[in-house]
Amino acid sequence: xxxxxxxxxxxxxxxxxxSLILLLIFSISPLSALSSTKQKPLTVAETxxxxxxxxxxxxxxxxxxxxxxxxLLRVETLCVSPEGRTVPLLVIGEPVPSSPLxxxxxxxxxxxxxxxxHAGEVEGKEAALxxxxxxxxxxxxxxxxxxxxxxxxxFNTDGNEKISPANRRNQVGPEKGVGVxxxxxxxxxNRDGIKLESPEVQGLVRNVLMRWDPALxxxxxxxxxxxxxxxxxxxxGFNPNGDTSLxxxxxxxxxPSINKNLREKYKVLSIPYGNFMDFNNPEKGWRPSGPQPxxxxxxxxxxxxxxxxxxxxxxxxxxxxxxxxxxxxxSILEYCYDHKDGIAQLIRSADRKTIQRGMRPSExxxxxxxxxLKPLKDKVTILGWEMxxxxxxxxxxxxxxxxxxxxxSVSYFSDFVPKRSVPFPYAYLxxxxxxxxxxxxxxxxxxxxxxxxxxxLEVESFRIKEIKGASRLYQGHYLNxxxxxxxxxxxxxxxGTLFVATAQPLANVAAYxxxxxxxxxxLVWNFFDRYVVSQWRQELQTYPVYRLLKPVxxxxxxxx
Length: 560
Ligand SMILES: [Zn+2]
Known about the structure:
Helix content: 25-40%
Strand order of the largest sheet: 1-2-4-3-5-10-6-7
Bound molecules: zinc ion
Radius of gyration: 28 Å
Distance between the termini: 93 Å
Largest sheet: 8 strands, mixed
């Protein structure tokens, strides 16, 4: 009896111990950890029922959660922002390439999606995070057998952290507010494509473009222009000094196909990005912003790569905008997936043509310094409204939409064509070496050499006859406009003179930076001011970059 009861007692104790151990096991086991985190992370847009947007910490936490659940992404640093925030770059692949080197014997194409460059324009940030999640956490992740997808969901972190309901009040939500346009240096990052004065755009060039060489960049924005029903608008890089076969491909094949897919498969309407040229007379036409490479998509096209500017429509509600952007990005990936080899061939051929032109430039090879703007042959149809136009003293009228819908079928003025051009040179020579100029050229990834011995060469010089700084500051600069004359002259170049050959894939970038009459070059952005107007003499100087028109063999070495 006593023995029996002891046995019972022992069994009871054993049972209690066993239960405790089981409890302990379950509470710390990875299985239970997995079951609690198996839930897909949600963006702030989703959890707030589309009334708010993610802060920097929300984005960081979302990315961490993706990493806990998937091995298909790695996080790199795109840059450190002026206010000290690390800007994340997601590298998504199956397998995730450990470095670009891992892709050199691999047929995958790299596509880069960038969002929140203007941190008041937040749809891309939410949509890109959702897209990253929906790719890496899918049982059979789509796209990754052919694509490596890079995503910078929060490009302008500093602007993002200034979220306030007072920003961009003209747009429909999110009611809890959005960030500001500028970065921590008060710079508009989508005007920094040439001068590269922000760590963000410097980081984009160094850590994305030069490191991963994406075939395509998608830059997500929100427009606040003309009234229409389509929630998504887009345009391609279109500077005519870029390879025109890329412009034609995007304009005539890629974008119409993405537009069609977006409409038919996802029921989202999209139109090419633009504004009415004259609100009093909307029939006059529709046009996007300028062709200058200060705008990143134009800059990318000068680098012989594809670029899409996505402008989501501010007067659609926030959820419609986020979802529109999400399906637009998805359609872009679908197109890249289906046409990967064609795209790769196109950009390889653009690079090859660019290099060959520079080896022996012919008379037909030119660089445009002035443009004409022509309409495309097909009109665009805009589902708009009748408008009330109220003149204002500032010149820009106040435009209000009336209640009555109106469909406009108008010419789309987005074909910038050369109006005046100069011969494309074999090389540029810069005898007065300024570390700032050298640094700029290298920041863009140009191949730069220096002369190892003095040499006398026949070159074309540009004598400045007039230089005017703009009356108003723009991005911290008084932009110059110049007039001058070209002269052929024999000139001595000392040892150490910088030599920029145009037989390189980035020759169009080199020309844009260095041509004296370039409408967005380093002369425009004040980098040569101290050389063209000396402080102790009144007369204007010769522009210190000389054009070497024909090939010459010279003793030189690469600048490290
Ligand atoms: Zn924008």
